[in-house]
Design a protein that fits this description.
With 140 residues, the protein is an alpha+beta fold. The chain contains four helices and six strands, in the order H-E-E-H-H-E-E-H-E-E. A hairpin with a 4-residue loop joins strand 5 and strand 6.
Length: 140
């Protein structure tokens, strides 16, 4: 994942990814090439550092019987980011149980997942929300 061009060329690095797909931690380094006009983190890079993780993690946790897609996303910029920033993703079993139960009858399920982007000292820089579409695969 660290060699995937959208990550590599934005200064984004996956620091941790658990073998069971339940946890990931990502860092966005502040460089001259990923700053905005006023010298803080470019908003697109802040969003990109969180973009693929919920879908990939939930897809792998639920397994091949489910379709999982990104449906929507939004970001709220809270403070100017001038230092390296981090995001952590944790998929809880209770959320997977909720998704399985809601999709059991073949219905589509839309669920929001939230991620805080913080500095190493814990200052909140941005809040990112991603909505996933989840559905059991049809067995025709």
């Amino acid at each position: 994942m660290n060699l995937w061009p959208p990550m590599l060329f934005s200064g984004i690095r996956v620091l941790e990814w658990s073998d069971d797909w339940r946890r990931a931690r990502v860092r966005l380094r502040k460089h001259w090439y990923n700053g905005n006009y006023v010298g803080t983190h470019f908003g697109g890079s802040l969003f990109a550092m969180t973009d693929p993780f919920w879908m990939i993690m939930v897809m792998n946790c639920l397994g091949r019987d489910y379709i999982v897609w990104d449906k929507a996303g939004e970001i709220e910029f809270v403070a100017a980011g001038r230092d390296d920033v981090f995001a952590e993703f944790v998929v809880k079993e209770s959320v997977l149980d909720e998704l399985r139960a809601a999709a059991a009858g073949g219905e589509k399920v839309l669920r929001w997942f939230e991620t805080d982007v913080r500095t190493a000292s814990g200052d909140l820089i941005a809040r990112v929300r991603k909505q996933l579409y989840v559905r059991l695969k049809r067995r025709d």
